[in-house]
Known about the structure:
Radius of gyration: 33 Å
CATH topology of the domain at 5-58: Arc Repressor Mutant, subunit A
Helix content: 25-40%
Amino acid sequence: MALSNKQRVFVLEYLRDFNATQAALRAGYSPRTAYSIGQENLKKPEIAEVIKAEVDARAMGADEILVGLTEQARGDLGVFFKIIEEWTYYPLPSYEIIDAKEIDILDEEGKPTGEKKISYWVRHVALDMDKVIDPKFSHLIHKFSDSPKDGLGIEIYNKQTALQTLAKIRQLLVNRTEISGKDGGEIVLKVVYEDKDGSKGV
Length: 202
């Protein structure tokens, strides 16, 4: 059975955030009935079938998951940084100063004021924003921050976690539990019982 236009829109909207009520609202159902319509739509076999087909089509396959984890395990933070050399009047403590020279301060007309300032030729590391937004690398970024105090910062996915997950998938890590008795000997089981009168026996 073919879906109505409204139902097709509902499916597309539901796949955005998997919220049936919001999907119903965005599909044009009234706010009064959005919750109940959303729940009803999910139970309709023809709608559920289309949603499942879309999810299956969009979901990652086993190979894609392995490739993604492998890329995370091989991820290198250095990819996102570049070396910059430039002149500046205000070198930061982390900058490597290569050279310095006195500069005449000019007025608005470009004439020397008689004042001098030291300009520094520095070398420092900077975040390579081209790499941050490049899809070849950006999927490795776990967190991006931009604060007035610390500036731009990134955090890539945890390499160790990705390696452990891959090792488990490849069955390179197996949890083993070995139980033995005292000094590696046989296990001796003792059953202790207690009579009604409080006396114990083995």
